[in-house]
Amino acid sequence: KKIIKRKGVQIEIKKSEVFITNADVGFSIYAGL
User: Fold this and answer.
1) What is the pLDDT of residue 26?
2) Closest CA to 30 of 6, 20, 11
3) Residue 10: count of CB within 10 angstroms of its CB
4) Which residues contact 7 (CB under 8 A, 6 or more apart)?
């Protein structure tokens, strides 16, 4: 599991799943690869 935080955007990488969350806008993207 790997978490990247940059300019209010948090990217969480867990196995083959990617979660991208933008705290400023309040949206979250889920990508199951």
Assistant:
1) 54
2) 20
3) 14
4) none
Question: Across the chain, how many H-helices and E-strands are there?
Answer: 0, 4
Q: How many angstroms separate the CA atoms of 14 and 26, rounded?
A: 21
In the chain, which residues have pLDDT < 70?
21-33
Tell me the CA distances in angstroms from 7 to 15, 16, 21, 25, 33, one per residue in order: 24, 24, 11, 12, 25
Using an 8 Å Cβ cutoff, are 21 and 30 in contact? no
Domain edges within the chain: 2-32
